[in-house]
Amino acid sequence: MATAPSRDTDETSVVVTAPSSEEESSLERTTALPLTEMPTAAQEDIEFEPAPVSHKIIMAFAVVLPFIGCIAAIVHLWQYGLVNWLYIGMLVGGWVLTGMGITIGFHRMLTHRSFETIGLIRGFWMAMGTLAVEGSPLVWCAVHRKHHQCSDHEGDPHSPHLHGKGWWRGVKGFVHAHTGWLFTGFWCKIDLKRYVPDLVDDDLLRLVDRYYYLCVAMSLAIPAVLGGLITMTWYGALLGFIWGGLARIFVTHHVTWSINSICHIFGGREFKSGDDSRNNLIFGIFAHGEGWHNNHHAFPTSARHGLRWWQFDSSWIVIRTMQLVGLAWDVRLPSKEAMLKKRHNAQSTAITEE
Ligand SMILES: [Zn+2]
Ligand SMILES: [Zn+2]
Question: Which among 72, 250, 255, 297 would be 20 to 30 A from 224, CA to CA?
Fold first, then answer.
């Protein structure tokens, strides 16, 4: 596989990808912008590239339909209680599987190349990520690399800090980082050749990109068919569609988007990362380890985001297990030295690594 470029010549920042084997010992170079302590908040709104109306309509459906499905599931629960664990299982199981498809597959495996695996496993995590309905893997990875490249500075697709100071601008920034950015040109006009040159020639990824909307339909059809077949009723199919389809997509979406919004505002900052990324315990748990977001921005190619023993990171547990049974290799972790160097207080207690 071709190696992604390590630096764009016309920008001051670095595209975040996996280092070559010679670079393994230090993840320093994979940091986003030069290590300023904190980004300066914009005084006014930064202009975002507009998206065509057709794109905005599609995004409106992608945001509103899962929300309606979630309301329907809550109403169903309110009316009938936990009548059937099948649908709760579909919601929770689907969320864990497709959520990890994003965190392990799209994020750590494809975007940052933090580990290598066999083709079958790669295809599995990619498929799970695609069923999360967060965009095709090529677009997702490209947007995310741009996020690291410009994190919390102009050009970042979903920073909450680019709308200026004051509480109202803060609210606008939060909304933009959570869902608003989906309606801008960042999503539909991302330059794939520039941001994912190592992925655009992958036949499978191109195929998924081309038939992405078929994957979206499958993401809704699979739980409906399962619900229908298991109960042998149309009502079961409808509940499968609502619980395992729409409501599950709603949960997965908002957990992922919270990393962009909440984890750039609320939480602790252990490492210098050149942005305002935060470590957030709640999303460390619910986002399968992605809530240790300050750790991640400090060491983007690390397969492990929860760097301390108590920072629960379920995606890392899965990757580590795959490594132990020989299904993952070249698993990248930051060295102790690199972590000490980036700590805000380098004099305090040493970091315990594994
Ligand atoms: Zn971030
Ligand atoms: Zn990342």
Answer: 255
Please give the model's pTM, rounded to 2 decimal places: 0.85
Looking at the structure of the chain, the number of domains it has is 1
Read off φ and ψ for residue 231, nearest 5 degrees: -95, -15
**15 alpha carbon – ligand 2 mean position (Å):** 11
| Distance from Cα 118 to the centre of ligand 1, integer Å | 28
- 290 Cα to the center of ligand 2, angstroms: 9
**Which residues, at least 6 apart from 72, have a Cβ–Cβ distance to it below 8 Å?**
242, 246, 247
Does 312 fall in a domain?
no
Per-residue pLDDT of the chain (354 residues; tens, 9 = 90+): 333 333 333 333 334 444 344 333 333 333 333 333 444 445 455 567 788 899 999 999 999 999 999 999 988 888 777 667 889 999 999 999 999 999 999 999 999 999 999 999 999 999 999 999 999 999 999 999 999 999 999 889 999 998 888 888 889 999 999 999 999 988 888 899 999 999 999 999 999 999 999 999 999 999 999 999 999 999 999 999 999 999 999 999 999 999 999 999 999 999 999 899 999 999 999 999 999 999 999 999 999 999 999 999 999 999 999 999 999 999 999 999 999 999 976 544 434 343
User: Which residues contact residue 175 at a Cβ distance below 8 angstroms, ignoring those fewer than 6 apart?
Assistant: none
Q: What is the whole-number distance in angstroms between the Cα of residue 84 and the centre of ligand 2?
A: 37
Calculate how far, in angstroms, residue 208's C-alpha sits from the geometric centre of ligand 2: 21
Find all residues with CB under 8 Å of 217, minimum gap 6, and list them. none
Contacts of 152 (CB under 8 A, 6+ apart): 39, 159, 161, 162, 264, 275, 276, 277
Using CA atoms, how far apart are residues 116 and 221, in angstroms rounded to an integer? 31
Please give the distance, rounded to the nearest whole angstrom, from the Cα atom of residue 276 to the centre of ligand 1.
Answer: 8
Residue 334 lies in a domain: no
Q: What is the CA(173)–ligand 1 centre distance, in A? A: 14
Q: Which domain holds residue 222?
A: 47-269
Is residue 304 one of the residues assigned to a domain? no
Distance, CA 140 to ligand 1 centroid (Å)? 13
